[in-house]
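LAB NOTEBOOK - FOLDING QUEUE
OPERATOR: T.R.
BATCH SIZE: 2
PURPOSE: Compare the predicted structure-token outputs for two unrelated chains run back to back under identical settings.
PRIORITY: normal
REVIEWER: second-year student, initials M.K.

ITEM 1
FIELD SEQUENCE / FIELD STRUCTURE:
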Amino acid sequence: MRHLSTKATCNSHGQDSSYFLGWEEYEKNSYDKVQNPKGIIQMGLAENQLSFDLLESWLEKNPEPAGFKRDGKSIFRELALFQDYHGLPAFKKALVEFMAEIRGNRVSFDPNHMVLTAGATSANETLMFCLAEPGEAFLLPTPYYPGFDRDLKWRTGVEIVPIHCTSSNDFQITETALEAAYYEAQQCNLRVKGVLVTNPSNPLGTTLSRSELNLLISFITTKGIHLISDEIYSGTVFSSPGFVSVMEVLKDRNCDKSEVWDRVHIVYSLSKDLGLPGFRVGAIYSNDDMVVAAATKMSSFGLVSSQTQYLLSALLSDKKFTKNYISENQKRLKNRQNMLVMGLKRAGISCLKSNAGLFCWVNMRHLLRSDTFEAEMELWKKIVYDVRLNISPGSSCHCTEPGWFRVCFANMTEETLDLAIKRLKDFVVEHTANGHSKSNNSSKKSKRKLLPKWVLRLRDRDHEPDER
């Protein structure tokens, strides 16, 4: 150990989160209809597998891009040789046009303000390096994606200060919560450099309202700080209200003529909307030339391969395909989300009303033995080990209220989702009959305890899952 760096030996990566423990248990005993029908079903993975047939159909009809050909001639050597880190112009043009299409072409993007990165993980970390020094802070509304504790903090040294949102208003961001988080950071002698939001939210599956976006812009204007809008799920919005990008609100407020224009940055990826996390395609969009220049230099540590860019530039440039894909994918997500919500409802479990994403924010507070995070962990362990479903407990998302869970629905077949719902329904019946729920333990007084930094600790691992 003494021969290694402090980074190699520190415990700030975030792998000791219960979020990662669920993945570890799934990998040891993963469900397979034939080989392991009693295994753990993966419902902790925000992956979109519902529209692969549309992508595969396009590839069959367009063999040249996948074969690295142009006009019948091989361009393999051209793609195999060194490409500079600015990216292929044709791909950047196709990507910004796809981003505009998702937003109903109400806003446009300049490819010269885009930096390509190896996924949204790399994009968010690169922005941290560009915008903050070690020991400075970003404010994040809770609940938030557990991987942010790794992505934003581990190598950068940047701190996260939570903006505590609650179920009383469906976890919407309020001015009071923003100011409280800012004050908390000051009390800890942390200089706040910005706010980071995910829109649509992971894990809530909801879009930020126009009023929330206006509140955020006003807040960062007053404080003189940055705003990062991670819009990785922007193409998954399947119900009203529709998606509103922060860029739309900036233009509505004529912010392009103000100083705040350069302090708002967008993160995007094709991991969710196209279901291509393995392709490692992410992007930073910023109006600040210095941020773009610095991030472009940093992107050399995590480039998108030229072969990937060439293939996807052809696919995204096919406007007939992208129009049909966006529409059909959203329909499929809506149907699958409804299947989960209705199935859970029949099991006596409710969900936060959502309109986007690949997951539901599920309320199981009534199944807790007591109103504590210890009880949440107790329930979660039963679901993982006994029910054999890997879901993500709210505490891993830094939720301030015990009993919420993120449950994914787009990474499996309908048949597997049906089985998962049946398992959970059977568990609820047995759990309630045995008197384990909070309603059956009303005489036991319990004091709600503060959210722990991490709930469980894991042994060292070779790798951790990366949804993004």
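ITEM 2
FIELD SEQUENCE / FIELD STRUCTURE:
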Amino acid sequence: MIKNGQNRNDITSGIQVEIVLKQDQRTGKLTSGTVKDILTKSAFHPHGIKVRLQDNQVGRVKNILS
């Protein structure tokens, strides 16, 4: 079951996700990786919770893979 990344409760450090980087928002290109830090403080965000991946890329979660 793929969840969208709008709820902070669904996201924990170490899970696999697909994010949209700031520069890819126009195209919607997804980048996959492992969550290192959760940057959004609120419990819900309509465009996806902002995270930092292990490789230090920052973007909003679109899909949770694991």
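REVIEWER COMMENT (ITEM 2): The chain has one domain: 8-64.
FOLLOW-UP: none requested
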